[in-house]
Protein: NAD kinase
Organism: Micromonospora gifhornensis
Amino acid sequence: MPQIRLGLVLHPTREVSPVVDTMVAWAARHDAALTVRAEDRHRVPESVRAVPETDLTAASDMLLSVGGDGTMLGALRLAVADPKPVLGVHLGKLGFLVEVEPQDLPAALDRLLTGDYTLVEQGCLECAVCGDDVVAFNDVALIRTPGQGFVTATLAVDGQRYGYYRCDALVISTPTGSTAYSYAAGGPLVSPATRAVVVTPSAPMSGISRAVVFSPEETVRLELKSGSGPVAVEVDGQIIRDGSTSGAVEVRYRPEAGQVVRLDPRRYQQRSALKLGLLDLPLLPAQLRELLPEEVRRRLDERELPPPR
């Protein structure tokens, strides 16, 4: 029996070979088992077992997401029926969910074996989209087709109708997703420690024009009105339906739907603070300084020392 079984969720297009090679070498030294989705069989050595995507979570004690935030969200969705801890390995552009840099991966894997980490629960949106059941850890968006009218939809909460939207897009987000598409559309910044559902219209033409924050116990339903333009439905940035002119999206918040591995919770909180600071909540100079790498801080301290007398 292997010490630990790790499932690999790889970015669909980025070069992942150096990171995978590091994992394979570590697994050989520590009697660990690596598994990957069958669709990624050609991207990993033969020593990595390939299984159908639907079997990856059951075959793993933990998932390793190799990519950015989008890959991490995909791993969380993959494990939503049987939540397993997910550790994000960062590739490429800036990410806020992923934590581990490739050069730090062996030490991070050692800590998985010893249990030296913290698990952070993540909530999601359970959505019925025109009859299909899906989940979103960031957001669900109804987006108009350019040049073909607007998103026109009614709002109902727990069966009670409240009004309608006519806008370019409607974004339904979790607190974690409130700093993404929802914020860009003018929505509020919501603490990730909060349980809530945020509905934000983008470029509203008429009807409800402000973002609304709902309780996690409430069920939110958005139904396309007759005459609405064709609408695409995105789930965590992935289009799942395109060109719909009828139907409804029903959303309910589900707590503790995913588990994220945090090796340095304080550092993650600092990165989250930086993200908020880049948006609407400016940081104090001393806080910004704390976010700098230790070597950079040391050099600044040396420059600011008073000259010897």
In short: The first strand starts at residue 5 and ends at 10. The radius of gyration is 22 Å.
